[in-house]
Amino acid sequence: MHAPRPISVSFSAIITCLALAMSGGCNRGGDDKIHVAFVTNNPHAFWTLAERGCEKAAKDFNVQVEFRRPAQNSPKDQQDIVDKLLLMGIQGIAVSPNDGKNQADYYNEIAAKVPLITQDSDLPPGSKRRCYLGTDNVGAGKAAGQMVKEILPDGGQVVILVGSLDVQNAVERRQGVLDELGGKAGATGPQLGKHELLTTITDGGKADECKRKVEDFLVKYTGDPQKLCFVGLWAYNPHMALEAIKTAKLEGKVKVVGFDEDEPTLAGIRAGLIHGTVVQSPFEFGYEAIRILTGLVKKDESVLPPGGVLYIPFKVIKKDEVDAFEKRLNELRNPPKAA
Amino acid sequence: MKKLIGLLLVLIVLYGALITMLPPRAIGQNNFNLARRVGQYGIISLGAGVLIVSGGIDLSIGSFIGLSATVLAVGIQRKGWSPATGIAAVLGLGAVVGWIHGMLVTKAKLQPFVVTLCGLFIYRGLARWYGDDSNAGLGSEHETFRRAFSKYEFAGLPVEFWYLMGAVVVFGVLLHRSTYGRYLFAIGSNELAARYSGIRVDRYKIFAYMLCSLTAAFFSIMFLADSNSVQPSSTGSLIELYAIAGAVLGGCSLRGGEGSVAGIVLGTAILFVLMTTVFVAGVSDKLEYTAIGLTLLVGAMLDEFLRRRGTAVRKA
Amino acid sequence: MLEAVAVGKSFPGVQALDGVSLHVAPGEVVSVVGENGAGKSTLMKILAGVQGPDVGTLRLDGQDVRFADVDAAQQAGIVLIHQELNLAESLDVAANIYLGREPRTAGFLNLVAARIYDDAEVFTRRLGLDCSSRTRVSSLSLGQRQLVEIARALSLRSRYIIFDEPTSSLTERETARLFDVVRSLKADGVGVLYISHRLHEVRELSDRVVVLRDGKNAGDLKREEITHQALVQRMVGRELKQFFHRQHRTGTDNSQAAPLVEVRDLRWSPKQRDGISFDVRAGEIVGMAGLMGAGRTETAEALFGLRRRASGTIKIAGREIAPKSPRDAVDEGVALVPEDRRAQGLVIDFSIRENISLPSLERMQHLSLVDRRAESTLANDSCTRLAVRTTDAEKAVGLLSGGNQQKVVLAKWLARSPKLLILDEPTRGVDVGAKADIYALMDQLAGQGTAILMISSDLEEIMGVSDRVLVMHEQRLAGELPREQLTEQAIMHLATGGTAS
After folding, report:
1. Chains B and C: how many Cβ contacts under 8 Å?
2. Which domain range does residue C42 map to?
3. Is residue A18 part of a domain?
């Protein structure tokens, strides 16, 4: 009777206005504060602490910070955001490139317009970014490998879990694990000293898929579960592996080490089911990035780290440190509202 | 009926292939894992299937699951709701969201595709906003809740499987025995004829959208109980495709008016047995989706081929 | 000469054609008639290359031919114009005429040459299609669309054109123009095969008639032998004693009784100057005549709650009803057998049983579960009562012939014992045998006190069945004719804007 009709233009316009109203409008006051931006590579919870660091730095250095997360892990989305920021008159950008190798040209052009630094993930050598700050991912991978050696001192089998190997930090962390176990740089496996790398499982960044695949792996696994260790490179990997191990009723037998500080991971460490996790300091990512950008906008080159690289130290958290770490984490996440 | 036997044969062949690749002692565990997945995803496939039978479609299932799981986890963890409150809240949310979908489709005459595609974006954004882009979970508390919706076992099978069995009975009666089901098939086959027969078409379509969103809300409850961790930005993403694939694989026609509860459950089972088979067979990660897609495509072609050969051509 | 010799074709469970022969010469118009299911369409599809015959041969100018597909038949100069037109509605006239054969320029760029518009107009003008070849097909009337199809056939330099029920959805004027076109095709030496249910068209147009029955030849009639009686007898295989039943009416005798249905000042659009007012008595069949677009279907839709009313009241048995949906109308005892059986009347994928019970399902439920037994009983009883020709009620309704389908639509509503039964073109696409059954049933219902409003474009039917006739013209009631004043001239006079005398 009635054909479905397209959404009318006016209706869309009204909704857009509503959406803008909900966002509280743009808080670009008339002041002439330095205006810089911090752009992530995905919307993962990891970045929440970086945002807190940016907020603290904004207060400390009296600058205005735009903190933006692309809705997906997509270079295109990220570049759209950067383009829009430039239109807003942003004076400096700290970015974590989604695909450094292929975005190098794009970011070199940006670097010619405003000071650009990279964080978390770097551009290839020779790029025009002013500096890089982030975790030494190879080093962090080695720390994870060290933990594997601790729980399986007599050797055993290792499975690496990661969302995707497109991302530089994932590749470096994995290499770090391999280097540490194999005892030399550039190790490839499968035999790594006393340990054997069985496989690397990717899940496209989907936690539920990670869990399903680990379950299926355990069903198929015929070796000794006491000699098996999962290394979860992305934040959800370690605790999804733990859930799958629980399904197979092998908790406490199969070992897990991981990265980052997802709450279930910390809970697993506290319960003794995950051996430990390598945590980065995203709060410092945010804080340091804004500190350096502020300096660069003010033409103060002295803020640049020597060699153009600033490694923000990572930490290894095991059962005895977990309570203190979580307390500190909560303080950072929920800063006192005063001031 | 022929269709169901065909699906059952495919399932048996795939499952047979899977267990030959597994060590014998692992088969029990494998069945347990599959029962849980089919239980969880079968329920949303049933919801999506009922909607597809009525001629509708919901592309926002995954995003809505993300929102619903976020509301549940954040509510319990950060706002101190009791699990019961949380469950009531998300089921209520599901009913409201489905009602809105149905109203927009029937009263505002928008295309279901458009409405739910918009929903896909809206709910994902709301999930990220409500969850403040940080993970949420239950920690090690609320064991009762987690047992009730995931960890409890009965007769060696996970509770999700028994929920599905319950849903099969409810949906089976609803779709195949009740007047409501008959009306849905009529609406899906020929909405105009249904309207001309004095059926309250709008009311029943709205109800179908509500059922679909309610099953999604229920899925999110099981999801949280199972994985105990919700990422507002990614939880549930693309799950609508599993739900729709399960339903369509099980014989629901996207043109509406066709489908069965048994088919939908078999379709879901085939999908998840296939995914496990592909993984266990050691197909490279890179080609995994390709292998799944190709298998489904071959199945669809075979089905169409058999259907053409089998149906009597209408007398001209 | 195009010939089919002893052609046979069977589908699973059905012998559609069994040794049928037929020939048509250039410049000859041959009509093919038969009840639905007699095999007419199958035979035409074989001639046009849509399907191949199982046995038998096709001959073109004495040579055996075999068409791999429609394209091959078109190359040979044979085109079938389907009942449901096959046009791309969002494209313009010229694009449709040259669809798939666009003359291309600029090499690989494949630009469609602008000259198709001029070329197309050569054909459209010849057919009297008075619109630009740049008009979008979606804005054309059905009759105009048909002319576009014919133009396409002409542009293919077709020597034989097959029309499958071309007039079923045309207005009188469009039909007349189509006849002119057929005659001019004939004059140009094109051979025409013409399928129709409308016997007066056949009589008017054909040089020869081929009658099919149950997939076999049932006789050829030369031009001078074509009479209604002779055609029907061959189609049905028996003599129909009585075609229009008028035995049981009660509404005509006591014409002083208060009417069962009173419609006053009914309008569905504020633009209508005059509202529509009429009565229907219990036991009376009121015919509603008028041209396409005169507002007859709209009236039915307004009464059935499908169309919002701008003004007016409807009373049934003295009580006012205000249906806002078909549902409301059904609850008030109104039933509609709609114009388009497949789109509005039936759920084609459903069985006979499921279709018949659809409006009555809530009377056959316990705790909202369907009572299958009651449903089957209803369906079987209905099939028997209406003489639906089927093995059982579980058969898909789509497999029935048009006449039997229409009986199922009637059965749907009989189960609800409506007070007012509205029939919109009740016998369109229905074969002769089933027509008689439907008329007998209407008569019987009227005898039981149902008020019946029958909309029809078939004047024979209107005059044969109605006790009284309302004539619509341009969204208003142009006049009312009592049975004794019913003539074709009187109806057409009112339907074309003449005033009541």
Report:
1. 94
2. 2-236
3. no
Number of domains forming the structure of chain B: 1
**Claim to verify: residue A62 and residue A176 sit in the same structural domain:** no
Asked, for residue C283, whether it belongs to a domain, the answer is yes
Q: Test C346 with B316 for CB contact under 8 angstroms.
A: no
Chain B residues within 8 Å of chain A (Cβ atoms): 21-23, 26, 29-30, 32-33, 36-37, 109-111, 114, 124, 128, 132-135, 137, 139-140, 192, 195, 223, 226-229, 231-235, 237-239, 275-276, 279-280, 285
Cβ contact C346:B190 at 8 Å? yes
What is chain B's alpha carbon radius of gyration, rounded to the nearest angstrom? Answer: 20
Kindly write down the DSSP assignment for every residue of C23-64, as one continuous string.
EE-TT-EEEEE--TTSSHHHHHHHHTTSS--SEEEEEETTEE
Neighbours, chain A (3 or more CB pairs < 8 A): B
Q: Does C298 share its domain with C383?
A: no
Compute the distance between CA of residue A78 and CA of residue A41 in angstroms, rounded to an integer.
7
Number of domains in chain A: 2
Interface predicted TM-score (ipTM) of this complex, two decimals? 0.86
- Compute the nearest-CA separation of A216 from chain B (Å): 6
* Inter-helix orientation angle B27-53/B201-227, to 10°: 160
Nearest-angstrom CA–CA distance, A165 and A174: 9
Is B179 close to C327, i.e. CB distance below 8 A? no
Which range marks the domain in which residue A106 is found? 31-135+282-313
- CB of C6 less than 8 A from some CB of B: no
List CB contacts (< 8 A) between B189 and chain C.
Answer: 347-350
Tell me the C-alpha distance between A271 and A259, whole Å: 17
CB-CB neighbours of B45 under 10 Å: 35
Closest CA of chain B from A52, distance in Å: 12
Q: How far is B95 from B74, CA to CA, in rounded Å?
A: 20
CA distance B273 to A129: 48
Q: Computed from CA positions of residues C342, C343, C348, C350, in that sequence, does the dihedral angle turn out positive or negative?
A: negative
Write out chain B residues lying below 8 Å of C346, CB-based: 190, 193
Task: Considering only the beta carbons, identify the residue of B178, B200, B316 that sits closest to C16.
Answer: B316
Query: Which member of A201, A219, A262 has the closest CB to residue B30?
Result: A219
Which ranges of A7-136 does DSSP label H, i.e. alpha helix?
9-22, 47-61, 75-87, 100-113
Encode pLDDT of B94-145 as tens digits.
999 999 999 999 999 999 999 999 999 999 999 999 998 888 888 778 889 9
Last residue of a domain, one of C401, C417, C433: C417
- Let me know if residue B20 belongs to a domain: no
- Same domain membership, residue C361 and residue C326: no
C169-188: pLDDT as tens digits: 677 778 888 899 899 999 99
**Please, which residues have CB within 8 angstroms of residue C108's CB and are 6 or more apart in sequence?**
none
d(CA C127, CA C355): 42
Distances (CA, A) of C71 to C12, C52, C79, C101, C120: 26, 13, 9, 11, 20
Inter-chain CB proximity C331 and B189 less than 8 Å: no
Across the interface, whether the CB atoms of B22 and A215 are under 8 A apart is answered no
Q: What is the domain-level CATH number for residue B97? A: 1.10.3470
**Angle, vertex CA B108, rays to CA B106 and CA B112, nearest 5:** 60
Q: How is residue C318 annotated by DSSP?
A: T
The count of domains in chain C is 3
d(CA A170, CA C73): 63
Tell which wins on pLDDT, B133 or B260.
B260
Averaged pLDDT for residues A315-323: 94
Residue A240, chain B, CB below 8 Å: the answer is yes
CA A38 to chain centre: 14
CATH number at residue C11: 3.40.50.300
